[in-house]
């Protein structure tokens, strides 16, 4: 399995829309209701899904699209920022390690191409598969975020994870 990240191309837009707007494709933890069907195209036409404040990249296994990663800049204080990241893997590719590898690749990319010292990711407390993927890819569990996310008519607890530059230096 050769997972890589690549920029979004125009013919990826239907795939991205499926993973963000189709309840059968988003997965239990990512379904937040139907989305504007033009939103992704407008963003792609505006900046190709890449900006100084964040972006989206396609997760590919060879020539096959398996999902996408996204990140956004979060201001820590006047002098610094960190990245918040997430991903969605298509249902037909889940459970094969693509998410773990994509996390690792995006962490390396963000640390190599920005001054940020911290990258964080969060997930619902009941999303054990994502928690395992984050831990396998070098993230440290920081704690529970009580009632932080609203989905499917209920407020849900989350779990916050992070990785900082020195974490990568400590590991071979």
UniProtKB/TrEMBL annotation:
Q: What GO MF terms are annotated? A: acyltransferase activity, transferring groups other than amino-acyl groups
Q: Where is the N-acetyltransferase domain?
A: 3-157
Into which family does the record put it? Belongs to the acetyltransferase family. RimJ subfamily.
Q: Which SUPFAM superfamilies match?
A: Acyl-CoA N-acyltransferases (Nat)
Q: Which organism is it from?
A: Nonomuraea pusilla
Spell out the protein name for this chain.
Protein N-acetyltransferase, RimJ/RimL family
Q: Which InterPro entries match?
A: Acyl_CoA_acyltransferase, GNAT_dom, N-acetyltransferase
Question: Keyword annotations for this protein?
Answer: Acyltransferase, Transferase
Pfam families on file? Acetyltransf_3
